[in-house]
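Onboarding guide, step 5: your first structure request.
Type a short instruction followed by the sequence, for example:

Predict the 3D structure of this protein.
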Amino acid sequence: MEANEVYEVDVNNNSLQILPRLVREFKFDLETSGRTRPPFEDNYFDFVTAIEIIEHLSHGDYLIMEAFRVLRTGGYLLLTTPNLASWINRLLLGFGYQPMFYGAFKVLLDWLTGGIRRKEGSIYGHKNLYTLKAMLDLLKVHGFVTCYVSGSRTFEKGLVGMIDRLLFHFPSVAPILITTAKKIG
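The system replies with structure tokens like these:
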């Protein structure tokens, strides 16, 4: 697929400097997108990606609504996010621990590897986590039809990594959700 124009939208100026210069840079805060809009016309893009973004937002709806607005009818949204209902989170919650990728995750990782240490604050900055069903429902409510759903694994080693490699083929329990949806209306 060839592209005539490619934009990176990010709140982090350092991230904007990583991509090659042929990508047009644009700084925009998705947290405020309910009040302001990026200066892209309605129905402007054929393809929008949101890779590991929605979980950092207070209101993921803003991201989905803005993607819908800027996509042309028939355009695609590729979205990835950690899975609240992953196999490891189901196990951790069953033992009374916080889910992975949320809040006090570093404490949980230490527990899994043999020792519990205290680590202040979240190392991820995630505000919301989604299950596969919640993500599919959110996309549907905002006018998208799901075209593709997949799971991905983390880069954990040992037993956790081995189980990830076995179960990431089942999106509902995979550590990472990957969804492609098409704008229909």
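Each response can be followed by summary notes, for example: Residues 60-70 form the longest helix (11 residues).
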